[in-house]
Amino acid sequence: MPYGLPYVARGQKIGLLGGSFDPPHTGHVHITKEALKRFGLDQVWWLVSPGNPLKDRGPAKLEQRMTAARDIMDHPRVHISDFESHVGTRYTAETIAVLQDKCPQARFVWLMGADNLAQFHRWRDWQDIMARVPVGVLARPGDRIEARTAKAAQVFRKARLHPRNSRQLSRAIAPAWAFANVPMQAISSTELRKNGAWPKG
Fold it and tell me: What is the mean pLDDT of the chain?
């Protein structure tokens, strides 16, 4: 496969978890494993981005974040990728379009936390993302109300799967999205940076 992507069989269902992973932590590991189960996925790919257009501060060096991601996420069905740095995409919609072009045999699902859903409408071409791939949202039980009132949730409210059908998300035709409540770990990249657990490279 191009750009170091793993082999993908026809019809394989792949969750995409994008972000700066600055740094990656056990919370990322936890939601990845939950996504595999909750949304009927065959694989999850971590897309470690060169940077986040919505953040003013640049992340640690990509090589540092890739190494840390591989160290913490050791799972046979999870692949750590710096795909965006190879193809030069900056926005999620662009990345998904290129992945679909390079891997037409795959069925991609975009994964995000409820905090991202709340500001999803600020992402460039966010409606195009919804039109391209199903979206799986993972959240703490307490985040349900905020997620339900998010602009994206309102605009695409008819595309939401019933919770009992969440495992069918990876087979759904976009636009489609599902919301899964999962017990979250009280850890964040921001806190790890603040307390000095993640020195700059």
Answer: 87
